[in-house]
Design a protein that fits this description.
alpha/beta; Dna Topoisomerase Vi A Subunit, Chain: A, domain 2; 7 helices; 49% helix; 9% strand
Length: 149
């Protein structure tokens, strides 16, 4: 069972209002990253460093960064998606990233494009706030986990 299919992850959308037993484990993150690798929609990140971090984690398929005004990105992505494909908006979890996420989300909803927030919701339960540090965060967490075994 992959991360995107697990019962725990189906409930991720409501996690801010429910209690969680703790931060995601290395296994949770690895399963989530595996799901990103096989995601058939488009993953949107803020900048080139975010793309590079995902690339280090072998997430290379359909990753784009914000290289134009948001409305142009939304139009370009919406036009390129198939009828059942989704978008993952993986902006930073800081104030500016949340503003960008909100704007993109609203524009995609107006264009009837579905957004998959499960990975983003998982990241909110970690200390990570910048996507460009995702590869290092996962590596450090794995190293720490290996040291406690």
């Amino acid at each position: 069972m992959t991360w995107m299919q697990s019962d725990a992850m189906k409930n991720m959308t409501n996690m801010r209002t429910t209690t969680r037993r703790g931060p995601p484990t290395v296994q949770d993150l690895e399963e989530a990253i595996d799901s990103l690798r096989s995601f058939d929609g488009i993953i949107i990140v803020e900048g080139k460093r975010d793309v590079a971090a995902l690339k280090k984690l072998d997430v290379t398929k359909n990753v784009i960064h914000l290289d134009a005004p948001l409305f142009e990105i939304v139009e370009r992505v919406a036009d390129s998606l198939g009828p059942h494909q989704k978008v993952i908006i993986l902006t930073d979890l800081d104030r500016e990233g949340k503003k960008i996420y909100h704007e993109l989300s609203m524009q995609f909803q107006r264009m009837h494009v579905k957004i998959d927030d499960r990975f983003r919701e998982l990241l909110f339960h970690t200390p990570l706030r910048h996507i460009e540090g995702l590869d290092t965060f996962v590596a450090n967490l794995a190293q720490k986990d290996a040291g406690t075994r």
